[in-house]
Amino acid sequence: MNWITRIIKAGEKIKTAIHKRATKEDIANSDWMSCCKGPQQKIIFENNMWVCPDCNEHHKINPKLRFAYLFDDGKYEILDTPSPVDDPLEFVDSKPYKDRLKAARKKTGLKCSMVVATGKIKDINVTAFASDWSFMGSSIGQAEGEAILFAVQHAIDNKHALLAVTSGGGMKMQEGLFSLSQMPRSVLAVNELKKNKLPYIVLLTNPTTGGITASYAMTGDIQIAEPNALIAFAGSRVIAGTVKESLPAGFQRAEYVQKTGFVDMIVNRKDLPDKIGTLLSILLKKHPAQDQTSEEDDVSNESLTVKTKEAS
Ligand SMILES: [Zn+2]
């Protein structure tokens, strides 16, 4: 072995050692994460609702944390949602869909990416649903669709306002038409909610794309977004390739999408409970729909009818 091969072999050993240390799991379990200033201790972000204190990047959070930040005193109840048949097409790509589901369930402790909860926001009863990015990129299949329908029905039955916290890459290709059918199903469900004169607020978080944007994420009475959230249907590279033009700076980000009218307001994470509470008070004319006094209901229903007409 000459000196050159010795150096190459030593380099290979170092490379292997580095790669061994830097598995995805190790990074996720470490006390460090990366943002604009490079690696920083997670506690800095955790103490600021996982928002970067330097660049205001709103990092992804799981549904339980989301609900804890949104609901009064961090109190809420998780609701059990229906469990449709797994893997209706027995789909296999580079590995079986069943195995992907199994791994996602083990990783997150959830049965699907969508979590439904109920609680109060500024003392107003709300049913909310949010998805976990760690569960196959929050993509929507039958189970997630059923969870949305369950949330809508729960809101209608209990006369709650409905809040959708959206994120995800779109529909699950592994479930084909079964997943695509969740687009019209979720929109029809939201229409039922509106027929019942209950408010529907959508909070768009990073990233909300594909069939999610093309269905329940765009039908809110009020459309809120977190700063700099990617909100899109097709990806920007696909669009640039199709129109053969370079796209403007900030294309498909919340601030850009607001200018085109798909987002009503951009709200920082720490301000969301106050803002959502105020909006619900206005939509319900300070008489939550769950109040059963007929006179009050007449007033609140009237205001909601007007709002729904404006929104539709
Ligand atoms: Zn940052």
Secondary-structure map with pairings?
Layout: H1 3-21, H2 24-29, E1 32-35, E2 38-41, H3 42-46, H4 63-70, E3 76-79, H5 97-108, E4 114-121, E5 124-131, H6 142-158, E6 161-168, H7 176-180, H8 182-195, E7 200-208, H9 210-213, E8 222-225, H10 236-243, H11 254-259, E9 265-266, H12 272-283, H13 294-311
Parallel strand pairs: 5-6, 6-7, 7-8, 8-9
Antiparallel strand pairs: 1-2, 3-4, 4-5
The structure holds zinc ion.
Residues 35-36, 52, 54-55, 57 line the site of zinc ion.
What would you say this structure looks like, in words?
The protein is α/β, with parallel strands linked by helices and 312 residues long. The chain has 2 domains: 34 residues, no CATH class; 251 residues, 2-enoyl-CoA Hydratase, Chain A, domain 1 (Alpha-Beta Complex). The protein contains 13 helices and 9 strands. Strands 3-4-5-6-7-8-9 form a 7-stranded mixed sheet, with helices on both faces. Strand 4 and strand 5 form a beta hairpin. The longest helix is centred in the N-terminal third of the chain and has 19 residues. It starts with a helix and ends with a helix. It binds zinc ion. Zinc ion (ZN) binds next to loops.
